[in-house]
Amino acid sequence: MKYLYKKILLFTLLIISACQREIPIEGTFDFEGEKIVVNAVLTPSEIINVHISRSTSPFVSTLTPDYNLSGANVELYKNGSFVEQMTYWQDGVYISPSDLLPQPNENYHFKVSHNDLETVETLPEEVPNPISLFDYYISEQNEQLTVHFSINDNPNKQNVYSIDIVGVTPETSRLGVGAGNLVNDDGTNCLFLYEEGEVFTDDCFLGNSTADFSVLLDKNRAYLIEREANIGITLKHLSATYDEYLSNQNDYYNYVPGFSDPPPLFSNVIGGYGAVLSYTVDEVVVEL
Fold first, then answer.
1. Are residues 141 and 216 both part of a single domain?
2. Chain segment 107-127, per-residue pLDDT in tens
């Protein structure tokens, strides 16, 4: 359990650090005073956990010791009904005392109160339906490797996915393989939505419920065998909120001060700040 908690903390802090950026021009954003900040990423493979902190001025270079909130009352709700009070762990992270795992197609939200700050509540976040990879294999032509796989999709609903293809060594470390474009079986290149991350919509399915994809790798078989690496594929089904968050981050990092008003930072926390997102995931390893 300690290992899981460390993994949860690292993942949560990575999400938080990704939301921070030095503002180049003072006065670009108005500081509205300290508020509760709620950050969480829900997925059925991890115990529900949430990071609670307080907002600080964007012009403060270092965080104060009380940045992480340790005395908060954090309530978890499922489909609008109270489930349990979260337990404080460390460094602003609260966890489910019953080791609760979020379930697909269910809504979750948090209500957070603290003696020094106004109470906040997050908007309901629906965990997407499960996703799975199948018919995955590797082909080789002229010493070039191509990864093939298939995905099912609900054509009656707009869905957003992310794909990550890496080399996986015996030590489970990630090895870059130079994955190229995601190509539909009919030869159509799937357009990635943002500069960071291979995120795409089910427009690539061309209205079908199943699609076959392929990705050409830069690294050849000899390179991977020398490093005792196989190919790992991670497919995530992102919630609509997660996609909205990524779109906002993309606009934010492309913003050039002085030419237009800055994009408002994403938040789905009523009365405060932060992001509560969700996804489902399937991971497979394809042996060479």
1. yes
2. 999 999 999 999 999 999 999
